[in-house]
Amino acid sequence: MTLITFTSDFGRSDHYVAQYKARILSEYSEAQVVDISHEIKAFDIAHLSYTVGSVFRDFPKGTIHLIGGNSRGIYLVAQIEEHLFVAPDNGVLSLISDQITQVYQLRTEKNPNKEIPAAIAKLAQGVKPENMGEPAAEYKQFMRRKSRATKQEISGHVIHVDHFGNLITNIDKVDFDILSRERRYTIFFAREKVKRVQSSVDEVDPGDVFIVFTDGEQLMIGINQGNGSQLLGLEYDSPVTIQFED
């Protein structure tokens, strides 16, 4: 059975999530739908892409990932790293991965909120994407913002603030490991400067700043048992820099 994940900015206080699921199940009663999140900030493509991009690879290959959101009535079906995505043509796919292939524009005529769940059900039953629409000659894409690394420093930005107020940056562990080998370094953010990356949050006392790498190997800044975003005055797009000593 093909697994379906569902992510949206629909929230939980209204009926929209249940309605989408009901319409999938009415077309394919054996469908298995797993929620990733429906608490995405409204119209926040950066939040949406970060959430889906952080977890989709943990699902089995061949999983169908449904992304609900502002679509302008246009939805795409695309292959990404051996997963299948159905998402609005709003640029979110380009921020999830740069390995996008076989992009088709789904045929929707009157009511995408009914037609998209029906399309998901067909895909889950084995209908090929090329039979669901026409090849998308053009679709909306954004450039993924990456950190900049030189021999002297890595400069990046906060790309996500999580539920706990922790600040995830676009500074990758692979760059840090290469440049920090047998060298001292200082991490600058807000008015703070820290000279050590911890292996785990538990290495610092409650109330102290920690810096660790996430499971996705991105530098994360926070405060043990505190809200790092509020207490440090950092938010989405705040700069973070690591300077290395010779």
Automatic annotation (TrEMBL):
Tell me the ranges covered by the S-adenosyl-l-methionine hydroxide adenosyltransferase N-terminal domain, including all copies: 4-113
Which Gene3D superfamilies does this UniProt record tie to the protein?
Bacterial fluorinating enzyme like (2.40.30.90), S-adenosyl-l-methionine hydroxide adenosyltransferase, N-terminal (3.40.50.10790)
- Please list the residue ranges annotated as the S-adenosyl-l-methionine hydroxide adenosyltransferase C-terminal domain: 156-241
Q: Which domain of life is it from?
A: Bacteria
Q: Which InterPro entries match?
A: SAM_HAT_C, SAM_HAT_N, SAM_OH_AdoTrfase, SAM_OH_AdoTrfase_C_sf, SAM_OH_AdoTrfase_N_sf
Q: State the UniProt keywords alphabetically.
A: S-adenosyl-L-methionine
Q: Which Pfam families match?
A: SAM_HAT_C, SAM_HAT_N
Keyword flag S-adenosyl-L-methionine: yes
Family stated for the protein in its record:
Belongs to the SAM hydrolase / SAM-dependent halogenase family.
Its protein name is S-adenosyl-l-methionine hydroxide adenosyltransferase
Q: Which organism is it from?
A: Roseivirga spongicola
